[in-house]
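Researcher: I'd like a structural prediction for the single chain below. Treat it as a standalone chain; there are no partners to consider.
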Amino acid sequence: MNERFSASTLKNPLLPDEVIFSEKGVTFKERKVFSSTENFVFYNDIAGVEIDSGIFFSTIRIKARAREQEILIRNFAKTDARKVKELILERARH
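Model: Treating it as a single chain, here is the predicted structure.
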């Protein structure tokens, strides 16, 4: 059940962002050189998922209930971004 998606290593070869699915929710890891952010959101707390597509890569925007700021996960392949969105929406409905 634990599925994991990593962002492209072309733009950030050492510290790609990740999306990790578990039984109850999804974890979003945003990595930077000197810091990182890890957000866990229960599936039923996800209000929406959007994809901003560029020429090569996509950014996934997660809108969670009870959070003012959306979660941004960057530099995913377009196919991976669509699969992440599909899995989140599928599991959020149950």
